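Sequence only, no structure available. Ideas?
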Amino acid sequence: MADAPGARPAPGIGRRLHRGIVFALVVGAAGAALGGAPAIFLQSLFNEESQRCAEAVRTANERGDEAPVCGDEFLAPPEWLPLSLLWGGAAVGALGGLAYGIASPGRRASRDAERQWLPF
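Reply:
I predicted one. Tokens follow.
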């Protein structure tokens, strides 16, 4: 109670690093979850195209027509694509969360700053 509101020192590097790691975990998990939507969407596009081509080949074989040639490189997605979207979202989120946790002022510092300039 004897301390003035502005007398509290800024958080040390340990506190900032801890806050940065916590933010990195939370925001990284959110980034991975948000990166999952495009990963699943792209995977479904490739699967849909491969099913469409397989259906066209089957139909052509049943009719006795010449079967269409499907490009194999477009039928199966690269194995790294969905995982790279997930890991990319997690990495961007984790780096942003770490930077925000380390660089942002604490709640007390922002409350003290508000008290200093408010006229009431």
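The chain is about 75% helix and 0% strand.
Hope that gets you unstuck.
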